[in-house]
């Protein structure tokens, strides 16, 4: 067996490529970082997948804005990550709560062994973790559904990644983080990704207020089911890399994590469809099946590398059923969070974290040859309490800090978080995009078959709260 490379403080970049072969230290373990690079490419597909999902769920007059935002979010988040996001999260001299600026501007981040795994060059690890951050921010902006102003939303994305995501990821995955050392068990982001994004999206919707002139009955249907299905398919596929690569090596545990991910998504579909079938007296919903798949993916994220396949099936099913039964949670909370980010990611993430504490198994965690973890199934009941501590800490921090950040932005002169009422009525697309491009919506409507013809490319005229040709 080849010895793992060792990090040398005196050469933080891993060596001078003009003087030595910096690749030599990874001879014999190349398959590990090749696998993680492949997983990174797969994870990237989640971002346009979320854009397609959100676009399909929205009314057609705001569909382009959500697609456009997918690319803008990944662009802004990438800048934030290479500017200081990576350093604030994974700096080796981090405190238990936040990293330092030791790696500001990716200084020293190149071919040295990464803080996550000695078998990975740090630049590979950095890229993989960047995509986690980008996916999370993209989930959060769903809270601004159909009423958030584009530029303030992008500024919020940069700030939110800095003051919410980076500290939470540091708590959870940095070896100095307090949740890491508690330890709470979070394989691939149940806390920093899902619980945080769910509560933050709820905060976004709360601060913006309810949409105006919305017909709740007619809006129960998405404007384009085809886009919802396609977006879900990309998210499902991307999640195989999201969870499958979180071992940070190409071990048996990684393969099991991918298997568990697919299994939980499948049982998530079955759980949600079953609830719909009973609730609607023998009728099905394609959108419901898509929501079930996402609920299953969310639930298994913290547990994928800690549980057996059958327990992954249980986690996906239970998470999906609970989320489906909370269909009216927005009405209960009196918050217009139309994308159901809180229901699917917030509640789903909390369920997944709790069930991880119950079902985590030492024999599964050890499949990568290095990880030690026990859960309630091994007789470690204390772990359930530690999982609840993670849930409470991340929920409170993400909601409160997001609200504070949004209120600060809201009261900055010229920083209008919410569009004007007339813009909201006409639609974000007509207000924020070049007129000649509005006809692009015809493609969306034609694909979905859920709207009357828009093939002539003319945008709908809004009269009151109703759209007419």
From TrEMBL:
PROSITE patterns: AMMONIUM_TRANSP
Residue ranges of every copy of the Ammonium transporter AmtB-like domain listed in the record: 36-433
Matches recorded under Gene3D superfamilies: Ammonium transporter AmtB like domains (1.10.3430.10)
Membrane topology note: Multi-pass membrane protein
GO MF annotation, one: ammonium channel activity
Cellular component GO terms held in the UniProt record: plasma membrane
Annotated InterPro entries: Ammonium/urea_transptr, Ammonium_transpt, Ammonium_transpt_CS, NH4_transpt_AmtB-like_dom
Keyword terms, alphabetized: Ammonia transport, Membrane, Transmembrane, Transmembrane helix, Transport
Entry superkingdom: Eukaryota
Spans through the membrane: 33-54, 66-86, 120-142, 154-175, 187-206, 226-242, 254-275, 282-301, 307-326, 347-367, 387-409
Compartments, record wording: Cell membrane; Membrane
Family: Belongs to the ammonia transporter channel (TC 1.A.11.2) family.
NCBIfam families in alphabetical order: amt
Protein name as annotated: Ammonium transporter
């Amino acid at each position: 067996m080849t010895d793992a490379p060792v990090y040398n403080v005196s050469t933080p970049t891993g060596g001078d490529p003009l003087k030595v072969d910096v690749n030599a230290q990874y001879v014999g373990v190349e398959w590990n970082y090749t696998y993680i690079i492949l997983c990174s490419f797969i994870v990237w597909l989640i971002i346009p997948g979320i854009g397609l999902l959100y676009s399909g769920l929205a009314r057609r007059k705001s569909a382009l804005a959500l697609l456009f935002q997918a690319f803008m979010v990944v662009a802004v988040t990438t800048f934030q990550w290479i500017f200081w996001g990576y350093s604030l999260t994974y700096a080796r001299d981090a405190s238990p709560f936040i990293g330092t600026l030791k790696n500001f501007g990716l200084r020293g981040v190149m071919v040295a062994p990464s803080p996550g795994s000695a078998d990975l060059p740090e630049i590979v690890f950095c890229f993989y973790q960047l995509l986690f951050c980008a996916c999370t921010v993209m989930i959060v902006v769903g809270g601004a559904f159909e009423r958030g102003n584009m530029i303030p939303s992008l500024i919020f994305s940069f700030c939110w990644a800095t003051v919410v995501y980076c500290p939470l990821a540091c708590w959870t995955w940095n070896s100095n983080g307090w949740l890491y050392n508690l330890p709470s068990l979070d394989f691939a982001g149940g806390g920093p990704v899902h619980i945080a994004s769910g509560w933050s999206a709820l905060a976004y919707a709360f601060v913006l207020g309810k949409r105006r002139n919305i017909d709740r009955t007619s809006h129960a249907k998405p404007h384009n089911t085809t886009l919802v299905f396609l977006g879900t398919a990309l998210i499902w596929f991307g999640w195989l890399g999201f969870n499958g690569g979180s071992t940070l090596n190409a071990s048996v545990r990684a393969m099991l994590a991918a298997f568990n991910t697919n299994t939980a998504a499948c049982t998530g579909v079955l759980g949600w469809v079953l609830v719909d079938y009973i609730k609607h007296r023998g009728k099905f919903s394609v959108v419901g099946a898509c929501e079930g798949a996402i609920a299953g993916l969310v639930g298994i994220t913290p547990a994928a590398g800690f549980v057996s396949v059958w327990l992954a099936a249980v986690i996906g099913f239970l998470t999906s059923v609970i989320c489906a039964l909370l269909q009216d949670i927005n009405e209960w909370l009196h918050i217009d969070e139309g994308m159901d980010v809180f229901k699917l990611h917030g509640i789903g993430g909390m369920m997944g974290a709790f069930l991880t504490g119950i079902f985590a198994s030492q024999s599964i965690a050890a499949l990568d040859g290095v990880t030690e973890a026990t859960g309630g199934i091994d007789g470690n009941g204390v772990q359930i309490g530690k999982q609840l501590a993670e849930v409470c800490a991340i929920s409170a921090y993400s909601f409160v800090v997001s609200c504070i950040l949004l209120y600060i932005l809201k009261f900055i002169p010229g920083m209008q978080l919410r569009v004007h009422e007339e813009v909201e009525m006409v639609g974000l697309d007509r207000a924020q995009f070049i007129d000649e491009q509005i006809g692009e919506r015809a493609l969306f409507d034609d694909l979905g078959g859920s709207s009357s013809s828009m093939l002539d490319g003319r945008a709908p005229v809004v009269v009151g709260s109703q759209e007419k040709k």
